[in-house]
Every structure is written in C-alpha cells, then in structure tokens.
Structure prediction request, 191 residues.
Amino acid sequence: MRRLIVTIWQSLDGFIAGSNGEMDWVTGHYDAQMGEYETNVIENADTLLLGRITYASFAGAWPSVPDNPDVSEEERAYARKLNAMNKVVFSRTLARAEWIHSTLVHEDIGGAVTALKEQAGADILIYGSASIVRQLTELHLIDEYQLLIYPVVLGSGKSLFAGLEKRAELKLVRSLIHESGVAELTYRLSS
Prediction:
C-alpha cells in the first residue's frame, strides 16, 4: 500500500500561515538543507493531493517555472517533477482543474484517498491544504506528518489542526535541525 505523507511549514507557535494567509516568513530560512529536503520528498512520490486554495497557488506558479531563465536549474528541475506528477484536487466549488495531470474530486475524500493508496505507485504527498489534512487525519489515512517548524512566532494565523474532532496519537520517528534553525520533525500514527 502506498504511503500518504503530509509535508508542511509551521511557525513555532503552530500556524501554517499568518492571519491574512501570508507566508513570507518561510523564505528567509530557505537553505541548501531545505532544498535537499524538498528534492528528496518529491523524488519518492508520484501523486500530489491538493485542496482548492493550494491548487490555485501551485497551478498559478509552477507550470511556467521550467521555462523561466531567471530561476535556478534546481528550481526548474523541481518544477518539472511537480508538473509531471499526478495531481488530485479536492474541491466542492472548483469547476475544472487545468494543470497538466490533474483530476478533480468533488465528493468522498476518504474513498478517493483509500483507492489511491491501494493503487500501485510511489508515495502520495500533501503540501499545505489544511482542510484536507484535517479530514484525512480524522479518517486515519495519513501515514506520515513531516512538519518543518520555523523559528518564527506569528502570534496569530491559520492553524493546521484547528477544528479537529478526533484525536490522532502520533510518534516521533525522526528529527533534524537545519542550520537555518528550522526543525524537521517526522511523525507517524501510533499503532
């Protein structure tokens, strides 16, 4: 069975975005270790799950990056991999998903993800998409949470697990502190 992995940036006080959705606090801590982490995550995956908002952000940015001479070859290679991945977009309101290799799912997130996990293939990733993460956490369908804790205190913002109705017991299986001060914490469901 394929693994479903969440990878997400979070402030030290537990927010994945500021009060107005801002994420500018992330860019100041990007370093070679973070680049290596991001490359490793997508090298082992072939499917990306996205909610409507994250999909709009990614689809608006990544398709044009491989042809952009103003970005590094590393970023262009990352974009080529993202563009080649299968993308499953969960939305009740989005009419169509036009980014290459995208499939739109309007209902039964649990059934759709269970079916994906049972198919042959590599890892399945979720970047951001807090509402999707919450739903899948409650259904115990996420195999691994890779939290990147940034040394920034926002004071308020969007919480990854706000509104979670069922507790999920996790165990820490890996930790690494990047030179930038970012703590990379990997958790799995406790049996």
The radius of gyration is 16 Å. Residues 33 and 88 are 28 Å apart (CA to CA). The chain has one domain: 4-189.
